[in-house]
Amino acid sequence: MILSFSILPLFSLFAKEISLKEFLALALKNNLELKAFQQAIKASELEKEAAKGAYFPRLKLEELLSHSDIPAQVFTFKLNQEEFSAKDFEIKKLNDPKSRTNFETRLTLELPIWLGGKIQAQVKQAEAHFRALKNLYERKEEEVLSQVYQAYLFAILSKESIKVSESSIREAEEHLRIAKARYQAGTALLSDVYRAEVYLNRAKESQEKAKNYYSLAKKNLELLVNTSLGDFEVEDLASIPQIEIERVKTLAFQNRKDLKALEEEIKTQREAYKVTLSENLPQISAFATYSLNDKNYPFGSSGSGYLLGLGLTWKFDTGLTTLKKAQAELQKSSSLEKKYLFLKNNILFEIEKAHTEYQNALYKFKSAESRIQASTEMLRIIQLRYQSGLARMLDLLDAQSELDQARLERLQALKDLHEAYMQILLAGGILKEAL
């Protein structure tokens, strides 16, 4: 499934010609939406690494300044500063000690041993969310490519419309020349001349509209690829794209990145349930603290010592807040599962819908080509009849209008064909691969 475009010189007389492939490459490199998504993925990757960091011990450094005349505190300060003496056991000093200052420096190492499975669930949650974002990014790439594709098709349609209008202007000028000649010869009415002039002016108006749309389409392309390209042209559409619809259907489920992203988000939500529920489970952690105590200076060490410990915490939420939050996470998970089933069903519908549009556009294209042939011959005959005085100017202009309409409808049908082709690839999740 390769989309083919006619091969034209890279540079025309005034402006370089840029292919669809070049625009697609520029979009993948410079599109601002994709750049923003890349930052979101980077943030998710950092969050994933941050979650893994909870497995490692935590160091905490503290400096505490205390001043007190409370007997128990003064007693403790002296002991920790290793300045306690036998005189301090006098009853009066014990009951009514002088106030004392203590600088305590603590270096604590905390190590989680088991937090109810919270850390493990948080790591899995972060990893699943990261994978989901990566899949969504790949889907976003395809969506951006489809936008570029559509913009390029509109630019081609506008460009080709200019060419059609140029043909219409040349033919309308010929009709006007014949009408003037016949009027001067006295074999036609002045109204024929006016009708021919009106038709010529409308053809010129159509050309100006096509030129303006072409300019707008090129600006849209520059916006999508976030690049200023100066004066450029787009390539012409050549062949009708072919599609293997059954192959697209077969591969759709394994190729659709948004479907895979939803699978990962369901995993994320299930892990969120475990994280919430862990608050009601036992939590075990170890710690080690080394302390320095001094009467006069921070970070002083007139006394020192260590403390080792193992802690068990088990909280019971009597308001059932944790359980209700966990149930809410389960409901969110169930909601995502329903969205997943809908997306699977909708993918096949999207492919069928796009394929129907493809078939309709193909029929319209073939019909337009047949009408162009018939209208061209009809215009030739009526023009000869008008020159011989056997047909009216209205008949001639009607035939010209039919030909112009068939030409434009052929262009529109070719654009619709490529657009439907692109929608089939997008629905099947193989747009980037095919292009």
TrEMBL record:
Gene3D superfamilies: Outer membrane efflux proteins (OEP) (1.20.1600.10). It is found in: Cell outer membrane. The keyword Nuclease does not apply. One of its GO terms (molecular function) is efflux transmembrane transporter activity. It comes from the Bacteria. Pfam families: OEP. Keywords: Cell outer membrane, Coiled coil, Membrane, Transmembrane, Transmembrane beta strand, Transport. Residues 123-182 form a coiled coil. GO terms for cellular component: cell outer membrane; efflux pump complex. Belongs to the outer membrane factor (OMF) (TC 1.B.17) family. This is Transporter.
